[in-house]
Amino acid sequence: MSESRPESRVQFIELSDEESGQRLDNYLMRILGGVPKTRIYKAIRTGEVRINKGRAKPEHKLKTGDVVRIPPVSIPTRDDTRTVPDRWSQRIERSIIYSDNDLMVINKPTGLAVHGGSGVQFGLIESLRQMFPDQRYMELVHRLDRDTSGLVMIAKRASILRELHVLLRGDGVDKRYLALVAGKWPAYRARVEASLEKCALSSGERIVRVTQEGRRSLTDFRVIERYRSSTLVEAKPVTGRTHQIRVHAQHAGHPILGDTKYGSEEQMVLARTHGLKRLFLHAQRLEFRLGGRRYSFEAPLDEELSSVCESFKMKS
């Protein structure tokens, strides 16, 4: 029978320099590991959590010297804490391609969400915190869809997270993806510009659509290799919207193969014919300069995606 360990007193925590720059909700989820997200957001909404004696919203950015009031909460005991399955922890450990005192870069496997929530018991960031309990600070720098594989950065210091977010808001990080799209992508279509908006279907499923009211979104595309019924393209997102590459490819008339959300049944049949059982979208390259140093990371296509390309070549 699971039990919970109540934190019986109000805590007042003063933010250190290394902890500044975080969103309030992310900070609370990190220090209150195991407390359900719903409980954390309720504590913020009702004013149980306060910053410098005042109410704050979940997205409030914390600063050095801020005093955060944390109410008594029930934290699950170790026996009640969900642990990362061995198969995932081993796979994640094999996927770490770079790590130093400031930064970790992981070639994320497909099927692994970057964070828990919405029915996902654990994600990449929760897994890493369990795998490296002595690492006091670990935060996602950016995100990938659950079905997208490839390079993800993890900051080990809040100051590094802030610097990388500044780079990401501008053009300081060069991110390149590989995608296999349906049909023959025309060479002249080097950029797709279409505003995107998050929408909810009557079923409750959340999708992204091209609308005039949406946020301005740009993706650059370059043909890498052509096959009879598909094209391998490189995609460079100029802006960083949810599902941007997937929706822009669909909007251009060439959905990404294996995309169950934005593709058609005809394209799903084509994907299965060539042995593709997942979304063919892979974050292949990251390049940026940080602290006077140039970083460059590359993750080649895995065996599954490479074999799909070979299948298309043989039948072209």
Protein model, in words:
- With 316 residues, the protein is α+β, with helices and mostly antiparallel strands.
- The protein folds into 3 domains: 76 residues, Roll (Structural Genomics Hypothetical 15.5 Kd Protein In mrcA-pckA Intergenic Region, Chain A); 78 residues, Pseudouridine synthase; 144 residues, Pseudouridine synthase, CATH 3.30.2350.
- Helix content is 24%, strand content 29%.
- The chain is built from 8 helices and 17 strands.
- The strands form 4 sheets. Strands 6, 7, 8, 9, 10, 11, 14, 15, 16 and 17 form a 10-stranded mixed beta sheet that branches. Strands 2-4-3 form a 3-stranded antiparallel beta sheet, with no helix packed on it.
- A hairpin with a 2-residue loop joins strand 16 and strand 17.
- It is globular and about 70 Å long.
- The N terminus is likely disordered.
Topology:
Blueprint: E1 4-6, E2 11-14, H1 24-31, H2 37-45, E3 50-51, E4 67-70, E5 74-76, H3 86-95, E6 96-99, E7 103-108, H4 124-131, E8 139-140, E9 149-155, H5 158-169, E10 173-182, E11 191-193, E12 196-200, E13 206-210, E14 218-226, E15 230-237, H6 244-251, H7 265-273, E16 281-290, E17 293-298, H8 303-314
Overall structural domain count: 3
CATH architecture of the largest domain: 2-Layer Sandwich
Distance between the termini: 59 Å
Question: Helical amount among residues, as a percent range?
Answer: 10-25%
| Series of H and E elements | EEHHEEEHEEHEEHEEEEEEHHEEH
- Major sheet attributes: 10 strands, mixed
Rg estimate, integer Å:
21 Å
Count of DSSP strands: 17
Please identify the structural class as seen in this structure: alpha+beta
What's the average pLDDT? 88
Number of continuous helical runs:
8
Unreliable runs, pLDDT <50, ≥5 residues?
A: 1-6
Provide the CATH superfamily of the largest domain: Pseudouridine synthase
CATH domain topology of the largest domain = Pseudouridine synthase
Q: Based on CA inertia axes, which overall geometry fits?
A: globular
